[in-house]
């Protein structure tokens, strides 16, 4: 069973194009809405933007974990994106972000939301994982790295 059970193979974006933090959040919102039915893209974006106003979700080492809780949403959802070019995210260490992990949760998911954030952070702190993420060639390789499942073999 994957370590990040709220991430599925279709929720991996290997080359997200954005030039600013706001554009990253807009693109992540759009990508999430394409994969989930019943969500309003503007609501997702505003939720992420409000969270960023509290402090950057750029955790350092080129990683950001934008997250938020949505009313009427019923499960944890993860989406990962490797940015095609690093973006200033006002990260704690001042480094630009080239990898983002979006986490959406139901409005009442206090402990589950925090556990999921901790789980993502643990995976991304594993020795060598960020180098392997940056070297991964495609979405299936990124998914395999993040979930500790074997990458599908080309036929």
Strand content is: 25-35%
Give the termini separation.
Answer: 24 Å
Tell me, what is the CATH class? Alpha Beta
Mean pLDDT: 91
How many strand units?
Answer: 6
Radius of gyration: 14 Å
Describe the structure in your own words.
One of its GO terms (molecular function) is protein kinase activator activity. Keywords: Transferase. The protein is an alpha/beta fold. It contains five helices and six strands, in the order βααβββββααα. The protein has helices spanning 21-35, 41-54, 110-125, 129-135, 139-147; strands at 7-16, 58-60, 63-64, 67-70, 77-87, 97-106. Strands 1, 2, 3, 4, 5 and 6 form a six-stranded mixed beta sheet that branches. The longest helix is centred in the C-terminal third of the chain and has 16 residues, at 110-125. The chain is globular and about 35 Å long.
In short, what is this structure?
This protein is an alpha/beta fold.
């Amino acid at each position: 069973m994957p370590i990040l059970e709220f991430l599925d193979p279709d929720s991996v974006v290997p080359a997200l194009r954005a030039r600013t933090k706001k554009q990253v959040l807009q693109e992540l919102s759009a990508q999430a809405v394409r994969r989930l039915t019943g969500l309003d893209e503007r609501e997702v974006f505003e939720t992420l933007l409000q969270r960023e106003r509290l402090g950057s979700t750029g955790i350092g080492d080129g990683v950001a974990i934008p997250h938020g809780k949505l009313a009427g949403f019923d499960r944890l959802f993860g989406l990962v994106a490797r940015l095609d070019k690093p973006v200033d995210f006002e990260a704690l260490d001042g480094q630009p972000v080239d990898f983002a992990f979006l986490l959406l949760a139901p409005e009442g998911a206090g402990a589950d939301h925090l556990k999921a954030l901790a789980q993502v952070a643990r995976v991304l702190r594993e020795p060598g994982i960020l180098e392997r993420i940056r070297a991964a060639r495609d979405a299936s390789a990124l998914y395999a790295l993040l979930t500790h499942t074997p990458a599908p073999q080309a036929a």
